[in-house]
Design brief:
It is built from eight helices and 17 strands. By secondary structure, the protein is an alpha+beta fold.
Length: about 325
């Protein structure tokens, strides 16, 4: 699944990948309270086919938006794989239904070509970013570090799609650890539609810095600690927990849990100490790391990657 499908699709030259409207509706429904009187910016979307633009333009009055802006490369290809250099980018602006037919007609959508390619890093796109309140899009996976860094630099709120592997990037994990970015409401794994109509499943997920109700749901713990079921690592003072549901309710120290923990992470309940799979982070945290892929050890045997946490309530 996941990354294999990305590579296969790339080789097969299924160049365009579109986020499905059902996935957008399912996720964005959890943030509707944030959208009132806001300028929404979709800066990695072909507005002619983008389901993000479709969702916001058709929900403009219901969400009480102030303005919707979208930019893209003039001939946009796969948003997952490349920056798709082209001559001029496209800019669309929508400020609501003027003729009262409850449909965003083409006559109501302002269209023009940008001076440059529409690259999100260009000066004219940065100027549009400065206007925006919330950025919602599916940015290029290959440029995800740079894309997030820009959002953080300009202190923007956002709901974006990224490869789940992004949590192992030190540039991204530092924001997760410091509670500046967290995973969205819907679980990982998304289906994308290609330009030939086929569907591929990708190990992708939503990243955001907007609050939503589920984020503060407490993980119910029912197991108790014992040395047999929760061995300690050789090179880090923490116990190993193989399944998120098996996190002991009574252990006060550090614990290594699967990365799926991030789907259940409540910042009021747990503190994130580190990530054994983040290069630079693991060497800092642990003693005697023997290779670029190994991290924690039990009885000399390397273990799976772990998020290192502590229960705040004990």
């Amino acid at each position: 699944m996941g990354n294999k499908n990305l590579h296969k699709a790339n080789i097969a030259k299924n160049d365009e990948f579109y986020t499905q409207l059902s996935d957008i509706e399912k996720e964005l429904g959890h943030y509707e309270e944030h959208f009132k009187n806001k300028i929404i910016f979709c800066n990695c979307d072909d507005p002619k086919v983008s389901n993000f633009f479709h969702y916001f333009s058709n929900s403009f009055e219901r969400l009480k938006l102030k303005k919707l802006i979208a930019t893209c490369y003039r001939n946009q290809n796969a948003d997952l794989f490349s920056q798709n250099i082209s001559e001029k980018g496209l800019y669309l602006e929508y400020t609501g239904d003027k003729n009262k037919n409850r449909i965003p007609d083409s006559s109501e959508i302002g269209k023009k070509h940008l001076k440059g390619s529409g690259d999100f890093r260009s000066l004219e796109c940065i100027e549009l970013l400065k206007q925006a309140d919330i950025v919602v899009t599916n940015p290029p996976f290959s440029l995800f570090r740079e894309y997030v860094a820009q959002l953080m630099e300009y202190e923007k709120k956002f709901i974006i799609i990224g490869n789940m592997n992004a949590i192992t990037y030190k540039e991204i994990f530092k924001f997760i650890k410091n509670d500046k970015i967290w995973l969205g409401n819907c679980p990982r794994g998304m289906n994308f539609k290609t330009n030939n109509g086929s569907i591929i499943n990708v190990n992708a997920t939503w990243f955001t810095n907007l609050e939503f109700k589920k984020r503060y749901e407490y993980l119910i713990l029912y197991k108790t600690y014992n040395k047999k079921d929760y061995p300690k690592y050789d090179n880090y003072d923490a116990i190993n927990v193989d399944k998120v549901k098996d996190i002991p309710m009574d252990y006060k120290g550090a614990m290594g849990v699967p990365i799926t923990f991030l789907d259940k992470y409540n910042p009021e309940q747990f503190e994130i100490l580190g990530n054994s799979n983040v290069r630079g982070e693991r060497e800092h945290l642990m003693n005697n790391v023997k290779s670029a892929t190994d991290c924690t050890y039990i009885n000399g045997k390397p273990q799976f990657a772990r998020i290192l946490i502590k229960n705040k309530k004990l």
